[in-house]
């Protein structure tokens, strides 16, 4: 009986149809990693280096940043790219180490659920944050709110 071993680079004749999710996950990790480096260092530079640095980080600083459409988009991109990047990494680890199908599906479902919940809550915080809510006692509002100045 003779066994023939194919050469390592022999092309496969069987092609699977559909989307190659592993390939697109790999591409996403590389692309999002590059964009995340720019977003994270921009975020750190503005928060820690410009102005008074760490001493300036307070409720008013965050309220001012989140009232700007530029920073809302910046923080949304940072949130979405980082969470999906991390979830994709956890999915890859699950694929590598969860050998039982039920365990793998359960873990990937939990990762997906946690990611969706955090994306929704984080996005809501970014776009609905109001440092000067109406009807609050004036002594509890920050000094930059219009009700305090009058």
TrEMBL record:
InterPro entries: SQR/QFR_C/D, SuccDH_FuR_B_TM-su. It comes from the Bacteria. Keywords: Heme, Iron, Membrane, Metal-binding, Transmembrane, Transmembrane helix. It is found in: Membrane. Gene3D superfamilies: Fumarate reductase/succinate dehydrogenase, transmembrane subunit (1.20.1300.10). Pfam families: Sdh_cyt (PF01127). The keyword Iron applies. The chain crosses the membrane at residues 25-50, 70-88, 109-129. This is Succinate dehydrogenase, hydrophobic membrane anchor protein.
């Amino acid at each position: 009986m003779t066994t023939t071993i194919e050469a390592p680079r022999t092309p496969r004749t069987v092609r699977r149809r559909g989307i190659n999710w592993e390939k697109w996950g790999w591409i996403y990790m590389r692309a999002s990693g590059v964009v995340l480096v720019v977003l994270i260092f921009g975020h750190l530079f503005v928060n820690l280096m410009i102005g008074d640095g760490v001493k300036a980080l307070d409720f008013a600083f965050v309220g001012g940043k989140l009232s700007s459409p530029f920073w809302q988009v910046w923080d949304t991109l940072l949130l979405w790219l980082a969470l999906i990047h991390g979830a994709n990494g956890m999915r890859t680890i699950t694929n590598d180490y969860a050998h039982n199908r039920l365990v793998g599906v359960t873990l990937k479902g939990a990762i997906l659920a946690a990611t969706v919940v955090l994306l929704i809550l984080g996005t809501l915080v970014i776009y609905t944050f109001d440092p000067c809510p109406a009807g609050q006692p004036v002594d509890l509002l920050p000094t930059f709110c219009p009700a305090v100045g009058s």
